[in-house]
Design goal:
The complex is a heterodimer of chains A (363) and B (285).
Chain A: E1 5-14, E2 17-27, E3 32-36, H1 43-51, E4 58-63, E5 66-67, E6 78-81, H2 93-103, H3 108-121, H4 137-149, E7 155-159, H5 167-184, E8 187-192, H6 195-201, E9 204-209, E10 212-217, H7 219-224, H8 229-234, E11 239-249, E12 252-257, E13 262-267, E14 276-281, E15 287-289, E16 300-310, E17 317-322, E18 327-331, E19 346-351, E20 356-360
Parallel strand pairs in A: 3-8, 3-9, 6-7, 7-8, 13-20
Antiparallel strand pairs in A: 1-2, 1-4, 4-5, 9-10, 11-12, 11-14, 12-13, 14-20, 15-19, 16-17, 16-19, 17-18
Chain B: H1 2-35, E1 37-41, E2 44-47, H2 50-57, H3 59-93, H4 97-107, H5 114-125, H6 130-137, H7 151-175, H8 179-187, H9 192-220, H10 224-229, H11 237-247, H12 251-275, H13 280-284
Antiparallel strand pairs in B: 1-2
Classes of the chains: A alpha+beta (363), B mainly alpha (285).
C-alpha cells in the first residue's frame, strides 16, 4: 500500500543552521502520526515544508506516491490546522468552512449542504450563522478541523492546535481529536511538544531533537524501549546515573556509577567494559519497601531516607536520598502500606536490571 | 469628595469645550450668518439666500465645485491604490529594521513644510527642471518640456501630500492581521487574488475607510498644491473661497462657498461609510 505521506532525506538549512537534518519517514493511510520534540527542534519546519510554505533544501515529499515539491500550497492535497487556528474573523462559521469549497468553484447549494454536513459531524449543528468570536476555544478547534476536512485532504496537518486551550479542555480535546480522526478516516500528522498529547492520540510517534528523528515507534516502544538517551529522558520521567561499565554479559551489564555504586542494567546498544555510560530508571519501576528482605529478588538495592513527598494523587512521588547522597524519584504506591510515610523515614528501594536501561554515554 | 471629582471633570472638559466652542462652533455660526445675508447698500444688510443662488447658478462656481469634488475623490482613489501595496510591504513582507526604515522614509518628507515639498516638485517638473533636462539628454524630447500647471502635476502633488495619511492607518490595520490567517487562505486553496479579496481587504477595511476619509478631506481642503502646481484650468474650490474673502472682500459669497464645501465633504464621507457598511464610531474608534 502506498503511504499517504512520505518524506525522503528531507533537509532544510537556514543560512548556517540546519533546521531539519536528513529526515525520512512514511505515514500509512488512515493513521495518526505525531512528531514530538522540544521547541526549536525543527518540527514546525517539517510541517511547513509539507504544507508548501517552505521549500526543502534537498530531499523529496511525496503524497500518495506523487512528489509535491513543485506544487504550490494552494494546490497541495494537504490542509493545515494552525497553532492559533487562524479562522477568518471577517467571516461567519459557515463562510469559514465553505471557503475552500468556494475556491473549488462548487455550486452554492452544494456548498451549503456540505457545510451543514460538516457542522453535523463535529457536533455543532446550526451554528453556521455565528461569528468566529462567539465560539468557545473547543468549538473553534472543531470548526478549524471541519474547515479542512470538507476539502477531503489526503493528509491533515495539525500544528500544536491544543496549545492555546486550558488544561481541562485540552484533556477533553485529545479524546475528541482521536475520535474525529477515526470519523473522518484521514491521515493526521500532528506536531506537539507535549508528550502526553502524542502518547494518547498517536499510532506512531517520531521523537525529534536538533533537526533529526531520534526514534520512530508506537508510544509503548518509545516509553519502554527507548533507542537513545534523549528519548529515554524526554518521554516520561527518569532517574539517571552516569558511570563506567565494569563488565558485560550479553545484554546484561554492571556499571560503577560516578558516586561509587555498582548497578546492574540492560544495554540498549552494544557496550564494552570500560565505556562511559548512562543508566535510566523510571520512578514507577522502583519498588519501595520497609525492609531489605522484601527486596531480595531485585538486582539493584539501595537504602535511603525520604527527603520529600510530592503528593499528586495517583501520580504521587517520594524523593529518596541514598547513602551516596544522590536523590531518586520513586513512585509512591497507592495501596495503603505507605500511607503513613513521612519525611526522614528510612526506606529500602530496589529495581530489576531489566527495568534499568543503559546507553553509551557521551565521551 | 464628590465635589472634587466634579471640579476635576469640569477642568478636564474645559479645554475641549473652549476648543470646540471658540474655534469651531462660534466661527461656523458666524460664517453661516454671514452667508445668508445680502448687502443692499453701504452698511445695510438683509437676510436672503442670494449668495447660494449666485453660487449655484454661476457656471464657473458650479463647475469648480464639482471638479474639486471629483478630483479629490480621484486623488483619494489613486492614493489608496499606491499606498496599499506599499503598506502591505511595510506591514507584512519587511521584517525588523527594514520595516522601521521604510516607515521612516514615508515620514521624513513631512519634516519639511508642505510649501517646500511642493517647491520640490516644481524644481523637478518645470520647463528648465530636472525631468525636462533628463528627457532632452536622453533624446526623448528635442525641446524643453513643461510639465507643470496641469491636472496631472496637481494630482501628483495631491497624492504625494496625502500618502502618509493613507499609509499609517493601512500599516496599522495590516500589521494586526495574523500571518497564519493569510497562510490559511492559501492552504485552503485560495489564489493570491482571492486571498486579497476575501481576507486581506476585509480585514484592512477600517484602515482603508479612515485613510480615505482623511485623505479626501485633506485633498478637498488643500489650497497650496492646486495653486502652485495646477494650471489656469485647474481652479480649486478653496482658491475661490480665498478670492472671495481676500481679493474681492466679498465675505458673504466666500462664507456661502465655505458652507457648500462643508456640506459636500460631509455628504461624501457619509456616502463612503454607507457604501462600506461601517459606522463612524467603528472607523475612528
Amino acid at each position: 500500500m502506498t503511504p499517504d505521506l512520505e518524506c525522503a532525506d528531507l533537509v532544510k538549512r537556514f543560512g548556517e543552521t540546519t533546521a531539519v537534518d536528513n529526515v525520512s519517514f512514511s505515514v500509512p493511510p488512515g493513521s495518526f502520526f505525531s512528531i514530538l520534540g522540544p521547541s526549536g527542534c525543527g518540527k514546525t519546519t517539517i510541517m511547513r515544508m509539507i504544507a508548501g510554505f517552505l521549500d526543502p533544501t534537498s530531499g523529496d515529499i511525496r503524497i500518495k506516491g506523487k512528489s509535491v515539491l513543485d506544487t504550490p500550497p494552494n494546490k497541495r492535497p494537504v490542509n493545515m490546522v494552525f497553532q492559533h487556528l487562524a479562522l477568518f474573523p471577517m467571516m461567519t462559521i459557515a463562510e469559514n468552512i465553505g471557503y475552500g469549497l468556494r475556491r473549488q468553484k462548487m455550486p452554492k447549494d452544494q456548498i451549503a449542504r456540505k457545510v451543514d454536513e460538516a457542522l453535523e459531524r463535529i457536533g455543532l449543528p446550526g451554528i453556521g450563522g455565528r461569528k468566529v468570536d462567539e465560539l468557545s476555544g473547543g468549538q473553534k478547534q472543531r470548526v478549524a478541523i471541519a474547515r479542512c476536512m470538507v476539502l477531503e485532504p489526503d493528509v491533515l496537518l495539525l500544528d500544536e492546535p491544543l496549545g492555546a486551550l486550558d488544561l481541562k479542555l485540552r484533556e477533553h480535546m485529545k479524546v475528541e481529536l482521536k475520535a474525529l480522526q477515526a470519523a473522518f478516516d484521514t491521515t493526521f500528522v500532528y506536531i506537539t511538544h507535549d508528550q502526553s498529547e502524542a502518547l494518547v492520540m498517536s499510532d506512531q510517534i517520531a521523537v525529534m531533537n536538533a533537526g533529526r528523528f531520534e526514534q520512530v515507534g508506537t508510544g509503548q516502544d518509545l516509553y519502554y524501549r527507548p533507542d537513545t538517551p534523549f528519548v529515554a529522558g524526554f518521554i516520561g520521567e527518569s532517574n539517571r546515573w552516569k558511570g563506567r561499565i565494569d563488565r558485560v554479559e550479553g545484554e546484561a551489564l554492571q556499571m560503577r556509577t560516578d558516586s561509587g555504586l555498582a548497578m546492574r542494567a540492560t544495554a540498549a546498544s552494544p557496550l564494552a567494559a570500560g565505556d562511559t555510560a548512562e543508566i535510566f530508571v523510571r520512578p514507577e519501576s522502583i519498588r519501595l519497601a520497609a525492609s531489605a528482605e522484601a527486596l531480595s529478588g531485585f538486582d539493584n538495592q539501595l537504602q535511603g531516607k525520604v527527603t520529600s513527598i510530592l503528593f499528586n494523587g495517583a501520580a504521587s512521588r517520594v524523593l529518596v536520598q541514598d547513602d551516596a547522597g544522590e536523590t531518586l524519584e520513586v513512585t509512591l504506591p497507592q495501596s495503603g502500606e505507605f500511607a503513613t510515610l513521612k519525611r526522614g523515614d528510612a526506606v529500602h528501594i530496589g529495581w530489576g536490571a531489566a527495568q534499568a536501561t543503559c546507553f553509551k554515554g557521551a565521551a | 469628595m464628590r465635589a472634587h471629582t466634579r471640579i476635576g471633570f469640569i477642568l478636564l472638559l474645559t479645554p475641549l469645550v473652549l476648543w470646540l466652542g471658540l474655534l469651531i462652533i462660534i466661527p461656523h455660526i458666524d460664517m453661516f450668518l454671514i452667508s445668508i445675508r445680502e448687502r443692499i447698500s453701504f452698511g445695510v444688510y438683509e437676510t436672503s439666500l442670494a449668495q447660494y443662488e449666485k453660487a449655484l447658478t454661476e457656471p464657473l462656481y458650479l463647475r469648480t465645485f464639482w471638479r474639486t469634488a471629483v478630483m479629490s475623490v480621484l486623488a483619494t482613489a489613486i492614493t489608496l491604490v499606491i499606498a496599499f501595496p506599499v503598506s502591505y510591504y511595510i506591514a507584512k513582507m519587511a521584517k525588523g529594521r527594514l520595516q522601521q526604515v521604510l516607515f521612516m522614509l514615508c515620514l521624513i518628507p513631512f519634516y519639511v513644510s508642505e510649501l517646500v515639498r511642493t517647491f520640490g516638485w516644481m524644481i523637478l517638473l518645470r520647463e528648465t527642471g530636472l525631468v525636462s533636462n533628463l528627457l532632452q539628454w536622453a533624446g526623448l524630447a528635442d525641446q524643453p518640456v513643461e510639465m507643470l500647471y496641469n491636472d496631472a502635476a496637481m494630482m501628483v502633488g495631491l497624492v504625494y501630500t496625502s500618502m502618509l495619511f493613507m499609509v499609517v492607518p493601512l500599516v496599522t490595520t495590516l500589521e494586526s492581521l495574523d500571518d497564519s490567517v493569510i497562510e490559511a487562505g492559501y492552504d485552503l486553496g485560495g489564489s493570491g487574488l482571492s486571498v486579497l479579496r476575501e481576507i486581506i481587504i476585509p480585514h484592512a477595511m477600517p484602515g482603508i475607510v479612515s485613510g480615505c476619509i482623511v485623505v479626501f478631506m485633506l485633498s478637498l481642503g488643500n489650497y497650496l498644491t492646486p495653486t502652485m502646481l495646477g494650471g489656469k484650468d485647474s481652479l480649486w474650490f478653496t482658491e475661490m473661497i480665498y478670492n472671495q474673502f481676500i481679493v474681492r472682500s466679498n465675505w458673504e459669497l466666500g462664507a456661502a462657498f465655505g458652507f457648500m464645501l462643508l456640506v459636500l465633504s460631509s455628504v461624501i464621507v457619509w456616502g463612503m461609510l454607507r457604501l462600506t457598511g461601517r459606522t463612524l464610531q467603528e472607523t475612528m474608534g
